[in-house]
Amino acid sequence: MTILSASHNQRVPRACRIGPVQVLKWLLLVLAVSMALPAFADTPGSAPETPPYPRDMPLLRLSDTDGKPLAELTLDDLEALPGREVVGPIPDSGLGTSHWYGVSLRTLLASRHLPLPESLHAYALNDYDAIIPASDLTRYDPIVAYRRDGHYLPVDAYGPLMVMYPYDDHAELYTRTYYNRTVWQLDELRLR
């Protein structure tokens, strides 16, 4: 059986007609898929995003007190270690709170069989530096972040690495002291 199309006065085969139930099913399917996709896009390690630098390029140098290199780590090296997420802002940026993903400083040192030093001297690409006491590592467990809100950190957006404290877990971190220890464009950690 065929019916006439009101718009063009043409016959429409029965097999081509879609009823309201089928339309509703399709809309629900499209809605379900569109809601599920963002959940997978921001999962660390699952995004197909390409980093803005070669994966095998050394990003972080670990050095002794005198600056003698102990290890150089690439993005692949960092991603091979157990990671975790912290929540907090980039101090003084006005950008609001973000979700940061990376490697705990303690985990990073342990992965290279390095003892917990009295402090770490963190150096940035722009020659900024800050001293991070060992007590911060045991009390707050800051991370070396390589992702912000699910995306790799390009150099022009505070990357490729950043020391990030779990600000939202500890209200006492919202002070100038800890803001100064949040080192972006991190490229060296010197054990002291």
Give a description of the structure.
The protein is an alpha+beta fold. It folds into 2 domains: 40 residues, no CATH class; 132 residues, Alpha-Beta Complex (Sulfite Oxidase, Chain A, domain 2), CATH 3.90.420. 24% of the residues lie in helices and 30% in strands. The chain has 5 helices and 12 strands. The strands form 3 sheets. The protein has a 5-stranded mixed β-sheet. The longest helix has 22 residues. The chain is globular. It starts with a strand and ends with a strand. About 8% of the residues have low confidence.
Judging by the overall fold, what is the CATH architecture of the largest domain?
Alpha-Beta Complex
Please summarize the sheet with the most strands.
5 strands, mixed
Number of strands: 12
Rounded mean pLDDT is 84
The CATH superfamily of the largest domain is identified as: Oxidoreductase, molybdopterin-binding domain
